[in-house]
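Q: Could you write out the predicted structure for this multi-component system? I'm mainly interested in how the pieces pack against one another.
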Amino acid sequence: DTAVSQTPKYLVTQMGNDKSIKCEQNLGHDTMYWYKQDSKKFLKIMFSYNNKELIINETVPNRFSPKSPDKAHLNLHINSLELGDSAVYFCASSRTSGENIQYFGAGTRLSVL
Amino acid sequence: AQTVTQSQPEMSVQEAETVTLSCTYDTSENNYYLFWYKQPPSRQMILVIRQEAYKQQNATENRFSVNFQKAAKSFSLKISDSQLGDTAMYFCAFMRVNAGNMLTFGGGTRLMVKP
């Protein structure tokens, strides 16, 4: 059983398209996250979300939006894709308090052509 | 804002030897958490070790241990008896308490374990 699963693993698309990356966790966690890893391997938080609040990193363009249909899912929707959006996107989840270890998905490599 | 610095972009070590990866951070917070994550070529992010800032005792997990120096804002990772499977990128990360639990990562250190 995969604890945090992302789909798809690879996504190749054209500039200007809209795409979504799905994330599901079966750990019973109440907080989920999206991170972006660029070509130099630098990892940066994009969003932190639980059912009470969404925290957005101020550097994230508003073309990116997280959507959570329920506690176990946090999907990432991207509008009007640009070349610079090419990266690996990681979903993660954790408990809000107590053991706050974040468990990561396997990542989605997005390539914008 | 917090920053995390890993000053060693690449390191190598012979199998069975010991290696230490450096990490420094900058924060005005007093209560926080520090982590080391490993990212092998498979791309999966794997937790190596976690340290609570209010605990003076250094965390250990089998062959992995940290040297946490709160005053110096230093959090190095020591890997003992290095194994080929330890070859990976290693990321140091900082987490503020009560701030969405978001991780701030360092730039990573690529570790190569040589047979």
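A: Regarding packing and overall arrangement: Chain B has a mean pLDDT of 95.
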